[in-house]
Fold these 2 entries.
Entry 1:
Amino acid sequence: MKRPTDHQEIEWQFDADELEPVEGWLGQHSSGSGLVVAPESTERITDTYYDTEDWRFYRAGYALRVRKAGSGVEATIKSLTPAEGNLRRRREISEPLNDDEPSTLRRAPGPVGEISRALLGDHELSPMFRIQTRRQRFALLLTDAADGGEGRGEASGADGVRIGEVSLDASEIPLGEDEEPTRLRRIEVEAAAGTAPTPDLRGFVDELQFALGLSPTSISKYEAGLYAAGLSPDGVAGLGPTSVDPSMSTGEVAFAVLRWQFAEMRAHEPGTRIGEDPEELHDMRVATRRMRAAMKVFEGALPERGSG
């Protein structure tokens, strides 16, 4: 069984109409720098994404995924950091599971289980959508390992130092019995786990993109799944108007201020539950103090049940 991991995932992502031309280009690739593209396994992957009814993982800045590949099951929490052009840098925390039941994740002893319990409290996980993928992998090996591979990749062997890998993903997002699934074709180039991208890897990515005329992905698979399923986490926190203008009564101003500060407090709740950044707790306390102060200032304009 795999060990739990917590690292920064660094990868480039591109869209493709078809994957066959990319596979052909990889098969014929040659490089004067000693970089070799080596075909590896092809596997079937089913990813199920989860969150709570009030989007606790999303509000904490993470997506929760449970992956089944072959006989293995793995839970992953991945940060929702925006892309930098065609490059994505995201924190990825993974933990193997015995099965894909949400109750198993709740009891998991590793980092994903711990964070999940902190965020969930007494709330339940709900599946949002599934993504089914046929993934073809290619290792990126640097055969010129005169420096012993130090600082250049995650492992070395008879075939060279592994500096990254390419994945060709043909994915479908099932939508229901009477609807056609949403289809995605992606090329992902990932740096070896725990290492910074090498100049050789960056050069390969530039060559790949130019040779095949590839465009960077505009949205992540998680975002594509949300859109396909018709889900919008940004619409959940509709607490009412928070802006203030001279035409408003004192009571309307009071509720606008309270809504604003409640939204601020709620925004920092997930980070406070996780407990990794003390600033989250500090900012949540600030918002709480400001709500108390507002209730004191507007005491005469609030209903008795709201100011007591």
Entry 2:
Amino acid sequence: MNILAIFACYLHVIAPSDTATIFRKQVPIQISAHRGNTGWAPENSMATFQKALEIGVNFIEIDVRTSADGQLVILHDGNLDRTTNGHGPIKQLTFTEIRKLSAGKGYGPAFEKEKIPSLEEVCQLISRWNKKHPQKTFIYVDCKDVAPKPLVEMLKKYALAEESCFYGSDSFLENLKTEFPAAKLMPSLKNKGEIESKIERLQPYAFDTNWLAITPELVQEIHQRGIKVFSDVLGPFDQSSTYQKALKLGIDLIQTDKPRLVQKTLLQAIPVN
């Protein structure tokens, strides 16, 4: 039996770190864990970020916001209601007030003490991991409500700025590039018609490309310009058939809520030589 087929058959008994090593060596596509999701712990929590590192993703996507007293925190929604036991806009609370809340809403007693993380805590966690492991993980930064300067300063403090990728509005990314010229910008791309203007304005590292707009021709055109193709495969698209299609299309990275399923599916999809 081909060695890759053996790996695929016994994937469920392989340690996550071993699976990640095999995946990174054999599969020409990267994985970003959307909000750090692993299916095991609350989104955008330190618990799920730790699990994502153990699974071996290339990037952990986080949503950065700013508290009333200028601290950078991690929460997807502008309001606290959906994922915490708090209420109202997070930007109206100080960091001390934010830390009194539980970020484990809906996950039972095991996660009721989970807190909304600070960006610094996330940087510390990933920096420690990268110092001890050959397979590095970086940050896919969704710049929700944050100024470029403090964001870049925090990432630089932990040697994460240059390898992380930045997603946000075109105007924000333009300001970020002024603050940090080496930033790997990742603007959205809804269709082919946006390519020229976004390249001229932003000189992107990658395009966060609408999954429904992706064709082999679009991927080829973007690659010919020296730009990577990233895409979210979330919600109804977060399934094995999508991952297989992404691999055939030659996409560079997929963002998912199911990183382990991506690894299992694509290891099985590698052709036998």
